[in-house]
Amino acid sequence: MALIPQSPAGRGHLAMLAFSALVAGSFSFGSFIANDIDPVALTALRFLLAGLAILTAVLIGPGITRAHFRAPWRYAVLGGLLALYFVLMFEGLKTAPPVSTAAVFTLAPILSALFGWLLLRQITTPRMALALAIGGVGAVWVIFRADLSALLGFDIGRGEAIYLVGVIAHAAYTPIVRMLNRGEPTVVFTLGTMAGALVLLTIYGWPAIAATDWAALPARVWWVLIYLAFCASALTFLCLQYAALRLPSAKVMAYTYLVPSWVICWELVLGQDVPPVLVLGGVGLTLLALAMLLKDEG
Question: Mind listing the pLDDT tens digit for each residue in 9-25?
Answer without folding.
Answer: 888 888 988 999 998 88
